[in-house]
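Batch job 17 of 40 flagged for manual review because the log was empty.
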Amino acid sequence: MPDHKDADQVLSERERGLHAEPLAEPHDAPPPLPLPSPGDRTAWDSPATRWAWRWHTVRTGLALVAWVAVWFALYALTQTVFPLASVVFVPYTFYAAYRLLMLLAGALPDVFRMRRTLRGHPWQLIENAEHGLSAHPAAASDKPWIAVPDPTAPGDPDARLPLLLFAHPRTRWWTRRMRSGAGAQQRAEIGVLWLCGDPRADVVIAAPPSAAARPGARTAPRRLLHLRQRNALIADRQHGTPAAPLTADPVVSDPSRPALSHPSTSRTMRGRMHRRVLLFAVVWPALLVTQVALVVRDDRDLVGLFVIIVLLQLTLLPLHVVVLVSTRRMTALLATHPWRPVDCVIRSRGRAQLVTVGDQVLTPSPWRVYLDQHATHLWIAGDPRARCMASAPGGARPVSLGPGD
């Protein structure tokens, strides 16, 4: 007959087995996503944020290198292997020049503006932020938007300001997840919005970290995007009123002295002229030396490079000269007219900004340098009926204004 264990022995073995082999905890549920540390005074204090910004900077630099490298590869292909590839090379040359200009004038400066914003503001988490692809009542243009709380009305949960996503390659990731046909997983990727900055000025938005990312990036925000909101909102259609300035506007110390004698105005205009003259003195002589070297070398394979330099000289060199002359004229105007404070109303119409001073309507043309949308006081130098200069109180950002319509 088989041996039978008594009940005490069986119970004792079961207890030893439970203690020896505890039940494994389930690993199917993903770990919770990391959140910004409450102890961080600014977003930049977080190592994960700094890592995300560095990776964003590296990607921007790689894109810059890639456009140039592909151009040289196509050029070598047309010269040595497949001459008919010029059908692709010529259109690519113009498109690559456009993308390089966008990178140098837009994406690359945005890297440093993004760092400045991250160093000055903490992260905010906004769950299930309202968004849309059509016009928002408080927006100055018909662009996709994401609504965030209005900082001027912290007690009103319904007060919202739109963050406008202007046409840019980096905004496509966001707009694809805002469409009505987006899947649930795509919508979940923007379910929690990371926001850093002031929605009325410069902000940085990001998607939350991904649990599926590589180990070094599982705590870092993704898809960093810098948005400039200064001209994106219409003041008279916002929820609430603009925030009052922290300090009173500075006064003109001596109304009889020319505006250029003001220290901040003189420093700004001197810096502008020095930068533009330095660029003129370095870039165009370098291109001229390159042309001379190509002529001396007499290499027919480099004719395309010579032609591209000629095109740059015919298009950008006259524009650079016009900028220098315009800067000189602005400096001369500031040297002959004093600053005087005026009341103003600033509004946007499409991409244009209209500044009303008294019965005169002015616009910052032709360079589209905008003034603060919420400003109600300006310093003016010159006759508003003709070309004049304007700046926010303090004189540190002079802008040329001309008669509008």
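Reviewer: the log was empty due to a logging misconfiguration, but the result itself is present. The first strand starts at residue 124 and ends at 127. Unflagging and moving on to job 18.
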